[in-house]
Amino acid sequence: MAGQVTQRVAKTGNNPFLKAVAAISTVAGWISAAMIVLAVGITCQMIFVRAVLNHSTIWQTEMVVYLMIAATLMGLPYVQRLRGHVNVDLIPIALPPRARFFMACFTLSVSAAMVAVMLWYGFDYWHFAWERGWRSDTIWGVRLWIPYMALPIGFGLLLLQLIADIVALILRIDTPFGLENT
After folding, report:
1. Tell me, what DSSP letter sits at residue 141?
2. Does residue 142 contact residue 64 with C-beta atoms inside 8 Å?
3. Is 123 left (phi over 0), alpha (psi -120 to 50) or beta?
4. Measuring CA to CA, which residue among 66, 80, 76 is closest to residue 155?
5. Rounded to two decimals, what is the model's pTM?
6. How do residues 9-24 score in pLDDT, each as one tens digit?
7. Strand pairing partners for 143?
């Protein structure tokens, strides 16, 4: 039916690896949501402290920024699992099933390679901050390895979900682009 939106979730079948990755991605999504709720709560507290108590804030703005960035990175695998990214499927719809399969394998592989590069550099950046003892140059002076940890964790979990998507595609547990063979 035209205009009908269906939620498409990565299929796991009875594969234990795919089920484990789906569970990890779901937990990451819940952690991401909790970070957003916490950031909203801290923002409300900051507004109260500034407007009602007329005091300055020290850590709130910085914490909210770090939480929102971490929530975005931690939410990546969950969004991939739910197929929540923007998807233009004009070309896959026009392709025959075999070509659609190879295109899906190719796009997932290229995505995984790009995310692997981001994971590598994210880990390197996190490790550099940890090794050098970097701190933010604010009054709070947070140890930067703590918020930077979201880089390797987020990209690592997204890479894991992309690998699971490739496995599900190759094992024919899931269909390319969520399109049934026609």
Report:
1. -
2. no
3. alpha
4. 76
5. 0.90
6. 888 989 999 999 999 9
7. 135
